[in-house]
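Methods — Computational structure assignment.
A single polypeptide chain was analysed. Its primary sequence is given first, followed by the predicted tertiary structure written as structure tokens.
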Amino acid sequence: MGSLRESVRFSQNHLQQSQLKSCYLIPSAVAMPKAKPFIVTAKHEPTGLLERITIHNTHKFDDVGKPRRTVRPTILPLVRRPFNPERAEKAKHDIEELALRAHLFKKQQLLDRISDPAPPLIDRIDMQAGPSYEYEPPKPLPDIHFQRTKILLRTSEYNKMFAATADRLEPVFARMEKEEGNLEPEVVAKVRRMGDGFDELYHGLEKKARRLTNRHWRVIKRDLKRIGHVSFEDLNSRLPEICNELASLNITFKYEV
């Protein structure tokens, strides 16, 4: 019996020692990291992000949560001056004198208005006299039209093409006016018709732009390119040939809009 009890006691002690070893022998990979002293996680209110800050003075936050100290103004004692009957009587006399003066002044104003009334306004207006300053009529309001950005961009693009074509055609028309007698009347009429339509469309493009369709814009661009393909070199010697080429294009710049 004694040997049995000793064996049971030995097994119990061995089990307790093995449990203690299993508690203390924790692998390093499983162990939880420990926070460094005086390092806390704080929330940054404007951004809402969490930041880790180091608290160097641990006693700095001892008063957190306590009610704010109320600073009350210091009430100074009122220093009363001794009563002076003479000064009080003089102040009372001055107040009564000022009130009497104001009353008399107001009464005199009323008497002046009654005895010498102002003439009526109609009598004070001189109907024959003109205005004291030169009248300038207001300027008329400009003709404002709001257009889409697409139309404005297209108008700006085509104005550049019209300006380039006008620079090329201007010397041709100036030379044609001088030598009109040496040219065929039919050719001159066609070229003038083209020039009149060109000027009318060029100077009124902004007003007509919103009524032009995509097909009209394509035709205008095609006609400007056709004029650009005509060579204007040696204008003095080749004027009849240049006018014939322009007349053969049959461009009038007249579009149904």
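Note: Confidence is low (pLDDT under 50) at residues 1-8, 18-32.
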